[in-house]
Specification:
Blueprint (H helix, E strand, L loop, with lengths): L4 E4 L15 H14 L3 E3 L7 H10 L8 E7 L11 H8 L4 E7 L2 H8 L3 H17 L3 E7 L1 H7 L1 H14 L3 E6 L6 H14 L4 E5 L6 H11 L3 E4 L13 H11 L7 H4 L2 H12 L16 E2 L2 H9 L17 E2 L7 H10 L9 H16 L7 H11 L8 E10 L8 E10 L2 E9 L2 H13 L10 E9 L10 E8 L4 E8 L2 H27 L1
Helix pairs in contact: 1-2, 1-12, 5-7, 6-7, 8-9, 13-14, 17-18
Length: about 525
């Protein structure tokens, strides 16, 4: 069976997302990562549209790709300008990429209202542009913009436009659902019709405005497309593009249409999170296949079943895409869930032990108070160690004071925290300023402890969430603080709950520091 070719456009279409900006260095790093993943084509951008893309293509000429072929993106020539004088066609050639993708109008509405030329003149634009690039020894992929909208309104003209590209030498004709509003049945029928009309391979490029981008891509493959265009994590303009992190495993594992080797498929989550990191976006917990919650089980009945046979509640083995199973701990957890969670942490806990009963009762009592451990597994691990009498206190808290004041003339408030802790009989009393009271408290705590525990300098707070718990008390309500910390190698979450936001934050901060010290101690023990 023919391999489905994956064409990634994260570095061009993905960059059109409202909250996504990549530097040249970011784009170079992403290109190397996508090449390692084994994708077939990587579209680097639109040469000539901005200085960043010009520099990117210049730098990429020094990079030797192991798997992927680099492509540059542009459009058919402008009306009234011959190809040899069209500046953006010339920029495409200067990029020196083996593949060039050019977009052309195939919807008669756009030809009349946007280009404002005759339908015949637009066909000439397509033919001449493709032919010009072919004469300069480029492999040409033709992106039929708004194909499905055009096909619905004027199928004869849409088919004539893609036929013009194919006849002029386009290696692939890619059918685009540019507005992202098509439905799978319509996509499948249109692809089947095009397949009878042109002899060159077909591609599919979908947007997610109707939340059908992945489904439309898959039905297009079933109908005959052999190239799929999309972006990692579905980055793209408006509601985004087709998400390759869902399409790739669906092709390989569901449709049995290979597009990546199994060994490469295991890198999918890593690549997904790598690109989120460069985009400075927190990975969505509930993203299919690669999200933290994609294989997470909360209900006790579900957790018990999946531990006996994963197929009961998992559609694929999580490790297939580089993910892992997570047993979530909540007041719905049972003894089997606790035992499995303890095993994940390297702790031994028998279902029938008194400690299991104690942990389960404390867990349910804490959640009744508003605690939540699904995003705070570090706090839960410390709770388990306490019940098993294995939690060591690295320091003793003696007290803190936080001052947050704003005086006349101050543009922003001033925050200062003073803290006192004891380590091995030595008392440390120190203060620090911060951007707000929680940041001041965090900085004062670390300032007091870093001379005893230098590794705390590695820790940084990467996320801070506050949730007002439904108590009907307005500003006197309970709040839950969730903190995510990182030391550059691992990430961990901790939680605190109180009717005082500073106290809730303090609880989460203390657990975060404790967990880092506990983790370091465990790591040294393993090393020995």
């Amino acid at each position: 069976m023919q391999t489905i070719r994956i064409y990634d456009t994260t570095l061009r279409d993905g960059c059109q997302a409202e909250d996504v900006v990549f530097s040249v260095e970011d784009k170079l790093r992403i290109a190397r990562k996508l090449d390692e993943l084994g994708l077939h084509y990587i579209e680097g951008g639109w040469p000539g549209s901005n200085p960043r893309d010009i520099k990117f293509f210049r730098e990429m000429q020094k990079v030797e790709m192991k798997h992927a072929t680099l492509a540059a993106f542009g459009s058919t020539r402008k009306k009234g300008v011959p190809c040899r004088r069209d500046s953006q066609l010339q920029e495409l050639l200067k990029a020196k990429t083996p593949v060039v993708a050019i977009v052309g109008k195939v919807w008669d509405l756009h030809v009349r209202d946007v280009l404002r030329i005759s339908l015949a003149a637009n066909l000439a634009l397509i033919r001449e542009s493709v032919d010009h690039l072919r004469q300069h020894h480029r492999r040409v992929f033709f992106d039929a913009e708004h194909f499905f909208d055009g096909y619905r309104q004027n199928p004869e003209y849409a088919l004539a436009a893609v036929s013009a590209a194919a006849e002029a030498g386009a290696e692939v004709v890619c059918l685009c659902d540019t507005n992202g509003g098509s439905l799978p049945a319509d996509v499948a029928a249109a692809v089947a019709r095009v397949k009878k009309t042109v002899s060159v391979p077909l591609g599919i490029h979908t947007h997610n405005d109707g939340e059908m981008a992945v489904a439309n891509s898959l039905v297009a493959v079933s109908a005959g497309c052999t190239q799929v265009q999309g972006t990692i994590n579905g980055f793209g303009e408006r509601a985004g593009n087709a998400n390759l992190c869902s399409i790739i495993p669906a092709l390989n594992l569901k449709l049995r249409r290979p597009c990546l080797p199994v060994s490469k498929l295991r890198q999918l989550r890593e690549v997904s999170h790598y690109i989120y990191e460069l985009a400075n976006i927190t990975p969505p917990t509930h993203q299919p296949y690669v999200g933290d919650a994609a294989f997470a089980h909360k209900a006790g009945q579900h957790s018990d079943a999946v531990l006996k046979n994963p197929a009961t509640y998992e559609h694929i083995p999580p490790e297939t895409v580089g993910n892992r199973r997570r047993i979530l701990i909540s007041d719905q957890a049972g003894k089997s869930s606790l035992a499995e969670k303890a095993r994940e942490f390297g702790l031994r806990l028998d279902r029938g032990s008194p400690e299991t009963k104690v942990i389960l009762e404390e867990l349910k009592a804490l959640e009744d108070q508003g605690y939540q451990f699904e995003g705070a597994e570090a706090s839960f691990e410390l709770l388990m160690k306490k019940a098993l009498r294995g939690r060591r206190r690295f320091f003793t808290f003696k007290g803190f004071r936080v001052i947050d004041e704003k005086r006349p003339g101050d543009k922003v408030p001033r925050a200062e925290a003073t803290i006192m802790v004891e380590v091995d009989g030595k008392v440390e009393h120190t203060a620090a300023e911060g951007v707000g009271p929680v940041n001041a408290l965090d900085r004062a705590l670390r300032k007091a402890l870093e001379r005893f525990f230098p590794s705390l300098r590695e820790v940084r707070l990467v996320d801070f969430k506050v949730r007002v718990l439904p108590a009907g008390l307005g500003t006197a309500s309970q709040v839950r603080v969730l903190i995510e910390s990182s030391d550059g190698r691992d990430r961990w979450g901790t939680v605190g709950v109180s009717d005082n936001i500073i106290e809730a934050s303090w609880q989460a901060l203390i657990d975060s520091i404790d967990y880092k010290l506990y983790k370091d101690r465990k790591s040294r023990g393993q090393a020995r």
